[in-house]
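To illustrate the input format used throughout this study, we show a single complete record. The first block contains the structure-token representation of the backbone; no residue identities are included at this stage. The design step must infer an amino acid for every position from geometry alone.
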């Protein structure tokens, strides 16, 4: 397990209140397995990172919206909304968290540790949001946290490769099929496979009785998008 001081160096920030960073790295499973934290007056305000996650989610939304609005003036409201939706997703936040090895800094309960919690997309993406909230509170404003988020945005090769028109394959496919056939696609026969800490989902995409594509992803949403993307390629 790495130290919070190492994470500060990675993020290029020196927390004034170190307890805020510790809190951002504390998963609820750790608190549940350490009841002495809530009973000891010294730790009367000690809780998990869930509240910071709530705050960080809102801060992240604001920063990303502001960034997209001013850096992509040629995009329509709909295109901006699609791009924002992709960026503020579990997939992207997990990628950012993974890039800084965030899982190695977390305080987890033994049960979550054994089940592979340090690699779970949900835990890592939530912890990333909690850190955003912690930085905002520590600096009493958005300047430093904005600089950090913009750095992630501009260094993310996956975001660079995305074109707004093709980002939301599911919506684009639906619009195309509606125009061509006046029919909507259906996603069904979901299956999951793999260990709990790295579960994958598979889905079949149909147009009425016609199987258009199979999709695979880390979530049902990702599987849907993958299937829609493959279907779009066959319809070209």
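Output of the design step:
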């Amino acid at each position: 397990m790495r130290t919070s001081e190492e994470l500060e160096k990675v993020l290029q920030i020196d927390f004034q209140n170190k307890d805020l960073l510790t809190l951002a790295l504390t998963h609820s499973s750790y608190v549940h397995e350490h009841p002495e934290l809530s009973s000891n007056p010294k730790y009367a305000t000690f809780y998990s990172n869930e509240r910071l996650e709530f705050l960080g989610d809102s801060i992240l939304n604001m920063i990303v919206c502001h960034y997209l609005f001013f850096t992509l003036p040629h995009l329509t409201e709909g295109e901006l909304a699609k791009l924002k939706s992709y960026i503020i997703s579990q997939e992207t936040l997990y990628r950012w968290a993974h890039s800084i090895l965030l899982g190695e800094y977390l305080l987890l309960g033994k049960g979550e540790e054994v089940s592979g919690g340090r690699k779970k997309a949900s835990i890592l993406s939530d912890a990333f949001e909690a850190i955003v909230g912690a930085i905002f509170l520590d600096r009493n404003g958005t300047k430093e946290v904005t600089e950090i988020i913009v750095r992630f945005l501009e260094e993310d090769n996956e975001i660079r490769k995305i074109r707004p028109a093709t980002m939301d394959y599911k919506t684009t496919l639906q619009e195309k099929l509606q125009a061509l056939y006046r029919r909507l696609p259906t996603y069904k026969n979901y299956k999951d496979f793999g260990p709990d800490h790295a579960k994958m989902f598979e889905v079949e995409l149909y147009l009425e009785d016609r199987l258009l594509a199979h999709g695979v992803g880390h979530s049902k949403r990702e599987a849907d998008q993958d299937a829609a993307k493959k279907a779009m390629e066959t319809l070209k």
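Structural context for interpreting the output: DSSP finds 14 helices and three strands in the chain. Residues 4 and 218 are 28 Å apart (CA to CA).
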